[in-house]
Each structure stands twice: as structure tokens, then as C-alpha cells.
């Protein structure tokens, strides 16, 4: 009871989008240049935010986008020990020129990641402390060792990397906050 259907959530989003577009075009006339693209999310009423949030959580749950909570147990109690993964309800505007800079530097970070992955001495020295304290990294290192370390590498390799950037507002530059080389966070 009291929840909004998918159709209702979609209607709320459409209404907010319409208000957002009206705000962006209110000052334009046929002879003036188009106004700049609106920044920030569209204005939403509290009931629209509530409806979108409920719909997003429902969708995430139905599509397996769940993680166990800290108190997750085995057995019958486990079903109530999950929560949805973090979700962004609305896109966040990102300046085009900053995005294009991130696109240009990403291949350089990929080349750096590849070079680091080939430097056995550097990896051993840098990861020594982590391998003693982090079980997940130690298990990955064990696989690396079991496969022959650098000698076990295949001559043909493909690296599929995703670089995550955030906008540093004071400098206006993209800051790389993460490079995902293998997405295993939900399997660890």
C-alpha cells in the first residue's frame, strides 16, 4: 500500500524532466542562441524522489543487485540480511571538456597499469605488507604464483580496464579515483 507503480514513477520522472527542460528554455527566443544546457538534476518534488527511490530499489532487488549486510548469517535469517547496491537516481552533469581530457589520458593510465603488472620485483616489494594482512589480495597473489608469476604469462593478453574519475571542482580537472582491472567485488 501507498507505493507508486512503475508507471507512476515513470510519470513522476517525465513531469520532473518537463519542468527541467522548461527551466532551461524559458529565456530563449527564436533569434537568440540556444541557452546552455541545464546543470544539475531536474527539480523533483519529495513524492517524486520517494517514488523514484522505491522503484530503483525494487528494480535492483529484482535484478540481483544486492549485497550482504554486515550481520548476514547462513540459513533462514539470511533472507533479511541483504541490501541493494549503491544507486544514483539521476545522472550527474559532467563538463564535456573534462570528460574528453579523461578519455585522452585513460590510455596512458592503461599503459602504466600494464607496465606495473609486468614488474615482478616492484609488485613483490609494494604488495609485501598487503599480502600479510589482506586475504583477498593474498589469494590473488597465490594464483599469480601458482601460474608461474611472470613466466606464466601468456604472450597475448587483453586488458579490459575501466577508469573511474571524479570532477575536482576547485581545479576543474578529472581525478582518477579507481582503475578496475577485474570486477570481482561481489564475489570476494
Task: Sum up the structure in keywords.
188 residues; mainly alpha; two-stranded antiparallel sheet
Summarize the structure in words.
The mean pLDDT is 78. With 188 residues, the protein is mostly helical. It has five helices and four strands. α1 crosses α2 (46-62) and α4 (120-133) crosses α5 (135-146). The two termini are 37 Å apart. The strands form two sheets. Strands 1-2 form a two-stranded antiparallel ribbon. The chain has a two-stranded antiparallel sheet with strand order 3-4. A hairpin with a 4-residue loop joins β3 (162-168) and β4. The chain is flat, with a radius of gyration of 23 Å. It has helices at residues 6-25, 46-62, 96-117, 120-133, 135-146; strands spanning 66-68, 82-84, 162-168, 173-180.
| SS class | mainly alpha
Task: State the helicity in percent bands.
Answer: 40-55%
Low-confidence stretches: none
Biggest β-sheet description: 2 strands, antiparallel
Q: How large is the share of residues in beta strands? A: 5-15%
Shape category: flat
Number of helices: 5
Task: Please state the average pLDDT score.
Answer: 78
What is the terminal-to-terminal distance? 37 Å
Major sheet: arrangement of strands? 1-2
Q: How much is the radius of gyration in Å?
A: 23 Å
Order of secondary-structure elements: HHEEHHHEE
Counting DSSP E segments of at least 2 residues, the number of strands comes to 4
Amino acid at each position: 500500500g501507498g507505493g507508486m507503480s512503475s508507471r507512476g514513477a515513470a510519470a513522476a520522472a517525465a513531469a520532473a524532466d518537463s519542468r527541467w527542460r522548461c527551466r532551461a528554455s524559458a529565456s530563449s527566443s527564436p533569434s537568440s542562441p540556444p541557452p546552455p544546457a541545464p546543470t544539475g538534476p531536474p527539480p523533483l518534488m519529495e513524492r517524486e524522489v520517494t517514488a523514484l527511490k522505491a522503484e530503483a530499489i525494487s528494480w535492483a532487488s529484482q535484478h540481483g543487485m544486492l549485497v550482504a549486510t554486515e550481520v548476514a548469517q547462513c540459513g533462514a535469517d539470511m533472507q533479511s540480511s541483504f541490501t541493494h547496491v549503491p544507486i544514483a537516481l539521476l545522472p550527474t552533469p559532467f563538463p564535456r571538456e573534462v570528460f574528453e581530457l579523461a578519455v585522452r589520458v585513460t590510455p596512458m593510465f592503461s599503459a602504466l597499469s600494464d607496465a606495473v603488472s609486468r614488474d615482478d620485483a616492484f609488485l613483490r616489494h609494494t604488495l609485501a605488507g598487503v599480502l600479510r594482512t589482506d586475504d583477498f589480495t593474498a589469494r590473488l597473489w597465490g594464483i599469480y604464483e601458482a601460474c608461474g608469476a611472470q613466466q606464466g604469462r601468456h604472450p597475448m593478453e587483453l586488458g579490459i580496464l575501466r577508469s573511474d574519475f571524479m570532477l575536482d571542482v576547485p581545479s576543474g580537472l578529472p581525478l582518477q579515483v579507481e582503475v578496475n582491472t577485474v570486477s570481482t567485488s561481489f564475489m570476494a
